[in-house]
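Before a colleague's protein record goes any further, I have to sign it off. What it holds is a sequence and that sequence's fold in token form. My question to you is simply how this chain folds and whether the tokens agree. Thanks in advance; the entry in question is below:
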Amino acid sequence: MADRPRIGVSACLVGERVRYDGGDKRDAWLVDVLGPQVEWVTVCPEVEAGLGTPREPMNLGRDATGRIVLITDRVRDDLTAAMIDFSAERVAELAAADLDGYVLKAGSPSCGLDVPVQGGGAQRGRGLFAAALTAAVPNLPVADERELAEPTARDRFVARVHAHHRRRTMAQR
């Protein structure tokens, strides 16, 4: 719908049961307050990349060269290439989807903006999907649900989304 901003969102945050354990991380403010004002475009990189639900938990780590990789916790499968390939394709679709903002799952090795890297000491990294998204669409308002728990940050994000929506719809006329 052109009259409402379109916001990409980690599917677990709007109640889809796509987490590694088959659960969700439904965020009441996103669903009940912001939801009626926007059109959601839900994405779960892990499920869409074919990893299924439930699945083994995974985290960011480092390979022998120091590169950030996506590794399952128990079996230690390296899912980096699969997630990078998926992310490139899905982000290209999202870049063409007239999004006005994006809400990511905090702490996720695919969607997190500030994620601990195992074996990296106090180092942090960006989830592989989040990194691809923010690189491809650098002017898109992006936040995670942890950031949006703070009212001032939430207001700033919503204002940026609406400003982006106004600019986008004016340019399309």
Summary: Residues 60 and 151 are 30 Å apart (CA to CA). Helices lie at 28-34, 45-48, 80-95, 128-136, 151-172. Strands lie at 6-10, 39-43, 58-62, 68-72, 101-104, 115-116, 124-125, 142-144. The longest strand covers residues 6-10.
